[in-house]
Each structure stands twice: as structure tokens, then as C-alpha cells.
Design goal:
This protein is of the alpha/beta class and 318 residues long. It has two domains: 3-174 and 217-240, Rossmann fold, CATH 3.40.50.720; 176-214 and 244-281 and 297-314, UDP-galactose 4-epimerase, domain 1. Helix content is 38%, strand content 18%. It has helices at 12-23, 56-63, 80-85, 87-107, 141-158, 189-199, 218-230, 248-258, 286-292, 300-314, and strands spanning 3-7, 27-32, 47-50, 70-73, 112-118, 166-172, 174-176, 203-206, 212-213, 215-217, 236-240, 246-247, 268-271. The strands form four sheets. A seven-stranded parallel sheet has the order 3-2-1-4-5-6-11, sandwiched between helices. Helix 5 links the parallel strand 5 (112-118) and strand 6.
Length: 318
Amino acid sequence: MDTILITGGAGFIGSAITRALIADGIGVTVVDDLSTGVRLNVPPEAHFIGADVADRDAMRAAFGSREHDAVLHLAAQVSNIVSHRDPWADFRTNVGGTLNVIEQVVAHRIPRVLYASSMALYGDPAALPVSETAVLRPRSPYGVSKLAAEHLIHNAGERSDVHGFAVTSLRMFNVYGPGQSLTNMYQGVLSVFVANLLAGDPITLYGTGRQTRDFVYVDDVVDAWVRALRSDARDQRINVGSGVERSIGQLIDDVLAAFGRERESYPIHVEPELPGDQRAIRADIGRARELLGWSPRTPFEAGLRATIEWARSTWKGG
């Protein structure tokens, strides 16, 4: 592959993938409206186009700017909280934007698409670890919009009446690491807690703290995307997580300890559980091992240290 288009390529995960592909000598076109992404995240070697995926005319222009061998579609509204406040925004970007991407993939006969799906599709699974064959019961407008977009993009890839394309959806769990926003309080619970400690602000805990998450380090996630791009894993949905469950309460203790603090001496505000918040989640990553030869390599403790070191070095007071 010579040139790849990445929607959402100025965001946390998208920019990390962009850097990895450029390092491998691949040309990258980044399409991002910078609503949550940061222009400085985009390497100078990338061809940057400031555009909203939900803008049909802008997508026509972006896809027509040069030929592309594959599309990595990461642009999305990703906050559960925001999705409850403004579900139309989720469907405009996550569903409407995906339809625009599909339209241009078909029009330009692009053979390969990777889609950034989400653990939110699973809701509260009946059993853990949750596999890709589990019943999908998203608990938020965000999860519903991501599920709709995943169905749409796979359905389009399977059509025989238009140019077909090979699709792989990567259902990502809680991605964290250097580069995650320290100022956007709606993205990344770990980065929010780290920013709280750096600013000396209280930590806000929603619910009991017994909710569990599957935290996976950004470098491992990038590795999964690159492997999927080069693989024969077509028409597949694949979990990308650590396979390890960690409670939010434990996460608070871990972050506090990394800063030399203890829960008893640090202000923690407890608020009611957020609507649509998943109560427990952990990925079954057997399919990723089988199809991609991928396993996460970064222990949580090492990833947390690297994240805090990066955050300290870049912190400017929020």
C-alpha cells in the first residue's frame, strides 16, 4: 500500500497510527475537523485536510485529492456523556459520517477499509470475557450509533451490485497512553484522573467505583491496527483490549500511588452513576491472537508510568 486515508487522524489514536504508517514509508492523508483532534498531532509528512466527515461535499473533495489504497475510519463522537446530552450529534457524525465515507470508498473503488468500533456495543455482557459473538446491547446513544455504523460499513462491503471492499472492524476497549488529551474531560478516564492530580483538583468518581474496564496501551492498539491492515482478516469484527479487568476504584488508587498520594488524604467527590455507564467489561482477545497474531505487550503498570511521565513533561496547567 502506498497511500492511506485516515479520518480522525489528528486524534489520540488516529495520530499514533499515522506516525507508525509514515515511519513505515506509507503516504498518509489525514482528514479531521479538529473538533477534538489537534493539528500539531499530525506529522508534517502527512497530507492534512481540515474537513468534517459529516459534510458530504467535503468528503468528496477529500477523497478526490489523491488516490488511496485503503481507508482507516476513526472519526467519531466518542463520549457517552455527550451522546446522552445530544444524541443527534452522535448520529450526524458516527452514522452520517460513516455513510459519507462508504459513498466515497465505493466511488473511488478503494479495496480496503478498517473501522474503529467500540466496546460500547456490548453494553453489560452476560458473561466475561466478552467475545465478538456476544449479544450486542449498547446502553448509550454513542454505543447505538457505533453499532449502526459498524453494520452499515460491513453491509456495504458485502454488496455485489456496487464495488465491494474488504472490511475489518476493530472493537477497541479503554485505550490510554501518552498523547491522550489532558484537557478534554469527556475522553479517557485515566487521563482525566492524571490531569486532576497534576492540577491538584479533586477526583470525581461516578458511581461506586466497582465498575470495571479493560485498559489497553496505545502502542499495542497501533500494533493491532497495522497488523489488521496487512492481514487477510476480511469481514471480521475483532476485539482490541488487554484481556484484564480493572475497577475504577483500583484505577484511582493506582494513579494516586503513582503521584505518591493516598485516597484517605486526597479529595474525591462521589456522584451518581452516569447514564449508560457499563458496569463490567473485559475483552476476549482470542480472535485477535488467531487472525492477527496480536497480543498486548505493555503491562498496565508500565503503561501508567509512561503516561504519567509524558503528562508531567507536557503539562501546562490545563
